[in-house]
Write a structure and sequence with these properties.
With about 60 residues, the chain is mostly helical. The protein has helices at about 5-30, 35-50, 50-55. It is elongated, with a radius of gyration of 14 Å.
């Protein structure tokens, strides 16, 4: 993601991992909630920043 070549793709790939870490650290180990927040916030920012690339994933009938 440093070279910004496949950043939207890797943001989608890494989001479930970050979400899992966030949920683990907020629900099961509440003392580590800050680590979960520090991982999920940049992912949410990237999701917002690359939302134009993700619009095709959320349409009912994609155009080919």
């Amino acid at each position: 993601m440093l070279l910004n070549r496949y950043a939207p793709f890797f943001a989608v790939v890494l989001f479930p991992i970050s979400l899992n870490v966030f949920l683990y650290h907020t629900i099961l180990v509440p003392s580590g909630w800050l680590m979960g927040v520090l991982l999920i916030v940049p992912n949410l920012f990237l999701g917002y920043a690359y939302q134009k690339y993700y619009k095709g994933m959320f349409v009912k009938k994609p155009s080919l």
